[in-house]
Amino acid sequence: MAVKNTLLFEPEVTCATCQACCCRLEVMLITDTGVPERYIEEDSWGSRVMARLDDGWCAALDRDTMMCSIYEHRPLICREFAMGEFECRTERKACL
Ligand code: SF4
Ligand code: SF4
C-alpha cells in the first residue's frame, strides 16, 4: 500500500511477495477519495467501509493480479498502511 521510513521498517517484506494480506482487513472510509459506490457498504455500526467478497478480500482487489483496481482512488487508510511495519507483518503472518 505505502512505504514509510521508520525504525520498524523491514526491507525484506515487500508487497511483491505478498498475497495482498492487508486487503482482507476492514477498511473504513473516513475521507472521500472517490471510491466507486459499488465497492462501498455499511458495517454493523453504520460506518461506510470497503465491501469484501466471500473470499474475504476487498471487492476492489483484482483477483488475477492481486493488486488494487482503484489504486488512484484507494481510501486514506490504504494509503497510510505502511509496508513492513507491525500491522503489515502481523497480517502477512496470518495469511501467507
Ligand atoms: S500486508 Fe504488507 S506486504 Fe502485504 S500487500 Fe499489505 S502492505 Fe504489502
Ligand atoms: S481499496 Fe485497494 S488497497 Fe484498499 S483494501 Fe481494497 S484492494 Fe486493498
Quick synopsis:
This protein is α+β, with helices and mostly antiparallel strands and 96 residues long.
Show unreliable segments: none
**Overall number of structural domains:** 1
**Small molecules in complex:** iron/sulfur cluster
Q: What overall geometry do the principal axes of the alpha carbons give?
A: globular
Amount of beta strand: 5-15%
Oligomer: single chain
Given the structure, what is the number of helices? 2
Return the average pLDDT rounded to an integer.
Answer: 91
Q: Label the structural class.
A: alpha+beta
Order of helices and strands: EEEEHH
Strand element count? 4
Termini Cα gap: 17 Å
Helix proportion = 10-25%
Give the spatial strand order of the biggest sheet: 1-2
Largest sheet: 2 strands, antiparallel
Q: Could you tell me the radius of gyration in angstroms?
A: 13 Å
Task: Provide the descriptors you would attach to this structure in a database record.
globular; binds iron/sulfur cluster
Structural overview:
- With 96 residues, the protein is of the alpha+beta class.
- It has one domain.
- Helices cover 16% and strands 10% of the residues.
- The longest helix is centred in the last third of the chain and has 10 residues, at 86-95.
- The protein is globular and about 35 Å long.
- The chain binds iron/sulfur cluster (2 copies).
- One iron/sulfur cluster (SF4) is lined by residues 1, 13, 15, 18, 20-22, 81, 83, 88, 91-92.
